[in-house]
């Protein structure tokens, strides 16, 4: 009889444990992945690596890259460098490599940084383009001509599908090369880049030769599809000890943005409209306090220029994350969050992308807008109008992985992992988008975290489940 009673108690205990486990799972307990990346150190590729190779031919255009030249993709800005002499500023473009029947004339610039002098940096905007059309373009006339191609994004429309690559903190290590190769295999149409490009400032005297190697490294992607640039802390290049007191000098000379078309006064905050997405780029390292130019611009952007009926997906890029449960760069984005979070929740932003922290994390839809420093409501609470916050500062740079997550995992954090990788956001229509994060040390098609997102304007359902 005692044995039966003991068995009944054991069965009851097991049932209670199972129920507790089910309750925790049903409540959506966050996941801290146990996956661990390779143990060897992250190192930059050597200067003689094939990905850094200078293209053959005298004064051949190198470091070719494109970005939107207007807000919607009917213009594309082409940038390149000539190392030997100025050469031609002309870009010819057309519907086939044999029919480059249109031409645009660009401009050039150079800059000095301590003991470095750049090559001739050319920028040329191709205008009058048709949406969703493939174009070929060439530059380097009079010396060595190189030809590339790109496809313009679809015309902004509520159900226009589009696939974004999401990359941050890339650098130029062997892991960076893996990240870029995996992204290329996954086949996005444009990249939303959340800052920290070359990491040249990690070298003595901010060695700007590493800006050149990085641009040659990424040319294989960014010459063929637009990358949307966000300025990170490694773009500051502020070094008064070297006599360099103009912030962002290499970045602004090399990487133009369509900020004027977006009504902005600076190239660090702006917006573009790609297919069914309205993308807002914010600057974590420019002033954003009340009445500053960035504050004023964002207020007007959200109030008057966002049209969810035309571009339903509202995406915000920044470098320093507002929600970060890693001890690296912990709470560095807090002052910007306090300034702008309520605006983003009121606007029903779908996704906020950030970098800076060299690991991966995806949040649930939580907000901390009730806290006003005296009411004690300091814990983020579930909010169906809030964005999903994604930290993708995991591109693979030389500073290594951020593997020091806070314990316990906060309720707002859905998934986190200390690995390198990239993500994709594939917008299907006005209501649904598929998000996936790919860790590097699996095959290129292996997905480590994925979720279907529903649009906050057209279908604000609970997509945390």
Q: In terms of topology, how is this protein built?
A:
Layout: H1 2-26, E1 31-32, E2 62-68, E3 76-82, E4 90-94, E5 102-105, E6 107-109, E7 112-113, E8 116-117, E9 120-126, E10 134-139, E11 146-151, E12 162-167, H2 174-186, E13 190-193, H3 209-222, E14 227-229, H4 249-254, E15 270-274, E16 277-281, H5 293-305, E17 313-317, H6 334-346, E18 351-354, E19 360-363, E20 366-367, E21 381-382, E22 388-392, E23 413-417, E24 421-427, E25 432-439, E26 449-454
Parallel strand pairs: 1-23, 12-13, 13-14, 16-17, 17-18, 18-22
Antiparallel strand pairs: 2-3, 3-9, 4-5, 4-10, 6-9, 7-8, 10-11, 12-24, 15-16, 19-22, 19-23, 20-21, 24-25, 25-26
What is the CATH topology assignment of one domain?
Purple Acid Phosphatase, chain A, domain 2
Strand order of the main beta sheet, please? 1-23-19-22-18-17-16-15
Helix content percent band = 10-25%
Q: N-to-C terminal Cα separation, in Å?
A: 45 Å
Using the coordinates above, name the CATH class of one domain: Alpha Beta
GO molecular function: acid phosphatase activity; metal ion binding
Protein name: Purple acid phosphatase
Family: Belongs to the metallophosphoesterase superfamily. Purple acid phosphatase family.
InterPro entries: Calcineurin-like_PHP, Metallo-depent_PP-like, MPP_PAP, PAPs-like, PAPs_C, PAPs_N, Purple_acid_Pase-like_N
